[in-house]
Write a structure and sequence with these properties.
This protein is of the alpha/beta class and 332 residues long. The protein is built from eight helices and 16 strands. It is globular, with a radius of gyration of 20 Å. The protein binds S-adenosylmethionine.
Length: 332
């Protein structure tokens, strides 16, 4: 029951177009060696400068982004878009403002999956992505002002991996809907929990991953935890070979996210909960953190009752009436 995602055809078309123009073939060993060096270098840059500006002017940054980070981040945004579609999150929205858009990573999945979205305005402080994607029907601009939100009730504000570099701009709060993804580091993830509360205080409602509008249990009952999701990547052969040259693999990718709107979500059934942890075997039982309200709770399966289910982090489950609450555990 893994959540597995293939590389996007539309994003890969852009990736291949960019690499072909540079004469780099990721299916050839020499092309892969070159890309692996650039990817490793950009990964080191992000680790050393977690809030630093993506240095788009550098060739190696463009190569690493188009070949590796664009396809991976597209999967992250696509999985969030799919969660949104399950609850009707995009209903009535027609305009997108993508803040810190880079190569329009989030816009590929939005354009592919949500046909009602007609207008894409990409806010990107570097002029490099706009130049490299000038053939796309997207409007790039370098700053965002209140006057840009022309149709607030139908506007979706998107920030994918950009609030780690820049504060959320004030005009974002004029939009009806917000889709925000951040790296699943403790620092960025905790900051996102702070933004969640800020959004509630401003009158927004959470549509996902939260199934409630109360305080986040990971924020109030822990000083270290943060909410994050995980999906699997269905890696083609050349990608597996490319990752063999890297000191890291991305067979699974994690991320933190929020979907919020001014309009309240549909009422979530009371017996639903989202799994916000991986399954953890413990002495005599298996536990998996879940979220359905302000309490920090765990689904628990006692070993003597048989094998626990293989449920992936991030899905919504139904708690049967037969489940029993014992301390912070819901025993299935
Ligand atoms: C890590 S990249 C993410 C790109 C893309 N959204 C993605 O998910 O792959 C962050 C982007 O935010 C842009 N950025 C940072 N601060 C910004 C600001 N104040 N205004 C506009 N763009 C900004 C950077 O230039 C960079 O392209």
């Amino acid at each position: 029951m893994k959540r597995v995602f293939r590389l996007s055809e539309t994003a890969m078309t852009e990736s291949e177009r960019f690499l072909a123009a540079k004469g780099i073939d990721p299916r050839e060993p020499s092309g892969r060696r070159r890309l692996a060096n650039s990817i490793k270098r950009l990964s080191d840059f992000f680790i050393e400068n977690p809030s630093g500006a993506t240095p788009w002017d550098e060739d190696w940054v463009q190569e690493a982004y188009f070949s590796y980070y664009l396809p991976l981040n597209e999967i992250r945004t696509r999985s969030v878009v799919e969660e949104g579609l399950k609850v009707g999150f995009f209903k009535g929205l027609s305009e997108v403002i993508d803040f810190g858009a880079g190569p329009g990573t989030a816009d590929f999945s939005l354009q592919d999956k949500v046909t009602a979205l007609q207008s894409f305005r990409l806010v990107e402080r570097s002029s490099v992505p706009a130049r490299l994607l000038s053939h796309k029907p997207w409007k790039y601009q370098t700053t965002l002002s209140s006057a840009d939100i022309k149709n607030p009730q139908e506007t979706l504000f998107v920030a994918s991996y950009s609030l780690t570099e820049a504060a959320i701009p004030a005009p974002a709060f004029q939009a009806e809907a917000l889709m925000i993804l951040e790296p699943s580091t403790q620092q960025d993830g905790r900051a996102l929990l702070g933004l969640r509360q800020q959004l509630i205080d401003k009158g927004f409602h959470l549509w996902a991953p939260c199934l409630h509008q109360q305080a986040c249990p990971l924020s109030t009952h822990s000083a270290r935890d943060w909410c994050h999701d995980r999906v699997h990547v269905d890696r083609p052969d050349w990608w597996i070979k490319l990752e063999e040259l890297l000191p890291f693999r991305n067979q699974t990718i994690t991320f933190s996210y929020l979907l919020a709107r001014k309009t309240p979500p549909p009422t979530f059934p009371k017996n639903q909960a989202r799994l916000v942890g991986d399954s953890l075997p413990e002495k005599g039982k298996t536990r998996q953190m879940l979220c359905r309200g302000p309490e920090r709770e765990f689904a628990a399966w006692m070993l003597r009752k048989g094998e626990p289910p293989e449920w992936p982090r991030g899905i919504v489950i139904e708690i049967p009436d037969s489940a029993q609450k014992v301390s912070n555990e819901i025993r299935f």
